[in-house]
Every structure is written in C-alpha cells, then in structure tokens.
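Schema walkthrough. Field components (list of strings):
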Amino acid sequence: MKLLKSITLISVSTALLLGAPQENQDAKLQKTIELGNSSSALLLKTLGQNMKAHMEKGGVMDALNFCTAEAYTLTQKVNSELPQGLEVKRISLKYRNPANEPTEDEKKILESFDELSKKGVQLPQYVLKDIDKNTYKYYKPIIIDKEVCLACHGDISKNVELTKAINDKYPQDKALGYNMNDVRGAVLVTIKH
Ligand code: HEC
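Field assembly_structure (string):
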C-alpha cells in the first residue's frame, strides 16, 4: 500500500512537472494502441470468418482457393475501410505470398518474437515501435494456435493435390513445416497521426 501510494505520488508530480504535453503524449499513445487493436482485430476477424466458412463448405481445397484468390484483396478492402493514416497487413519471416515479406526493420521484430517464443516466453498481445513523431508500427504476433492452420502450414506432403496447388500458385513458398504454438508472423498496423 505504501509502495502504491508513492507510485501515485510520483506520477502525480511528474504530471504536474510536465504538465499538459505529457498528458497529450499519453493520450496519443493510448489512441495509437486502440487503433492498432481495432485494425488488427478487424483484419483477423474478416480473414478468419471467411476461411472458416470455406473450410466448412468445401474443405481444405475450397479454403485454399479462398486464401489464394481473396486473402490479399480482402486485406486491401479492410484497408480501404480504415480511417485515413492506417494500414494493416500480415507479415512473416517464412512468407507464402511475397507481398507479405517484412522489411529489414520489421524482420528484427519478428526475429525477436521467434527468439522469445523459443525460450518459452509468453508473447505480448502487441508491441509498439515509434518510427517518427507521428508514425508508429504496431505488431500483433500471429501464433499457430489452431490445428486447422497445420492443414496448409504444417507437413502437407501426404496431400498431393494440396501440395501441387500451393506450388503452382506460390513457387517460392516458405510457409510450411510449422508446428502448434510456433510464431507464424504478425499483423502489422502502420499508424500515422
Ligand atoms: C486452406 C489453407 C490455409 C489454412 C487452413 C491456413 N492458411 Fe494461412 N495462408 C494460406 C495461403 C494460401 C496464404 C497466402 C495468402 C495470400 O496469397 O495472400 C496464407 C497466408 C498466411 C499468412 C500471411 C503471411 C504469408 O505467409 O504470406 C499468415 C500469417 C497465415 N497464413 C497464418 C495462418 C494461420 C495462423 C492459420 C490458422 C488459423 C492459417 N494461416 C490457416 C493458406 C492457409
């Protein structure tokens, strides 16, 4: 209780010292996180719901056709519905679609997710990196947390038809050989405001 009190005191006095600018900064950061949370959730929900529907309707080949034909355009559609200054996409070190290749700085974040995960660390819901005064990159780790992911990202060598379809569409595919609980990549939200 004593400790809590002194923390409160410290934060009150810091707020007094720094005054309004600090408050504005905190509010902006809070807003940035909210935008990251909502944009990443919208993308994951849109892709997840559609994939589930295709899986139930026509099995793995139907779901694959959906991912191949529509995952990327649906991502762009989600983007067009987001407020100005926001962009959401998926990235991965072992990407299937070359459009989801991370940049050098994004790679470093993904590599740190991998390292932490290999050490048995529970990954955070998101990490936030400020790029400049008005630009932030919000990363939400994507984990292979459902068996269904392995149907197209695990060991698929026994499914000849699926292997061929993936090879045809993505000759440079890197997104195979995953196991449950592996880090698959991240949802990246770039926020300018
Ligand atoms: C029916 C096959 C299928 C299933 C099941 C599937 N994926 Fe994918 N996944 C794909 C395809 C195809 C792409 C490439 C989409 C594109 O062209 O944009 C992809 C792309 C991705 C990407 C973007 C990065 C990249 O490699 O291009 C992530 C992240 C991803 N999948 C995660 C998952 C997760 C997590 C699950 C389980 C919830 C899952 N996938 C289930 C087929 C599948």
